[in-house]
Amino acid sequence: MKISKLHKEGYRIILWSFLMVLGINLAVDALIPYKWIQWTVLFVSVLLFLMIVYFFRFPERRAEGLPNEVVAPVDGVVVVVEEVFEPEFFKDKRLQISIFMSPFNVHSIRYPVDGKVIYSRYYKGKHLVAYHPKSSELNERTTVVIDNPLIGPVMYRQVAGIIARRIVNYAKVGMEVKKGEDAGFIKFGSRVDVFLPPDTEVYVVIGDKTRGGETVLGKVPVKKPSASVPEKETAETSES
User: Which of 134, 135, 171, 181 is the most exposed place for a label (fewest CB within 10 A)?
Assistant: First the structure.
């Protein structure tokens, strides 16, 4: 198992997990004389610790492709490719591409395009299974919109699943971000929806596996630079 880097969201959890494993094994070694119990506890606790470390892995990725191509924000499996009405920000039809993440996927979030963050909002909600059709509307979620100078605004939405209980979002209104850079972290099984213009040339189909920051989801036709989004349309809400 090769891990080149760990995500910073895991540092504290990994440290506490290590101290807990150390404490448990020292206590078992001092209080229980049976070697087979000592070795069993050691094996199980170390295995669980390695699983925690593995969950917070943060592999190096390099976003490539054309400036008007959109990359997958996360690792996972494409579960939705369809045209829908997006009521939160665009209030019109958009092409939705949804990626489901299992607990075994890399759970870091990466920016799908270059541009300026013009919308970032957190919503409390339920914890339906992430692949439920209503999860993107009812579950705990964070919505981010990035205004790209070539293709206009692109939205991605982090959706918590039945197990996930924390969404970490680094995107703040006014930030200039780069495609493929670290945008946050979502813990345990979850889903990310990307909303693109309906005329996007899609490169993926349902069932395809994605690599966050590398897999190209599609190419958006270059549009003329538009006026900046009015201030009243931007929003930002965060949870500490």
Answer: 134
Q: Which position among 4, 190, 238, 240 bears the catalytic label?
A: 190
Helix axes 35-55, 11-31, angle to 10 degrees: 180
| pLDDT the model gives residue 134 | 54
- pLDDT surpassing 50 at residue 158: yes
Q: Is residue 118 part of a domain?
A: yes
Query: What mean pLDDT value characterizes the chain?
Result: 85
Cβ atoms 162, 187 nearer than 8 A: no
206 and 87 within one domain: yes
Would you say residue 235 lies in a domain?
Answer: no
* Whether residue 39 sits in one domain with residue 91: no
Q: Which residues contact 116 (CB under 8 A, 6 or more apart)?
A: 146, 147, 174, 175, 176, 177
User: Which residues make beta-bridge pairs with 186?
Assistant: 167
Mean pLDDT is highest, among 114-123, 217-226, 227-236, for 114-123
**Tally of domains in the chain:** 2
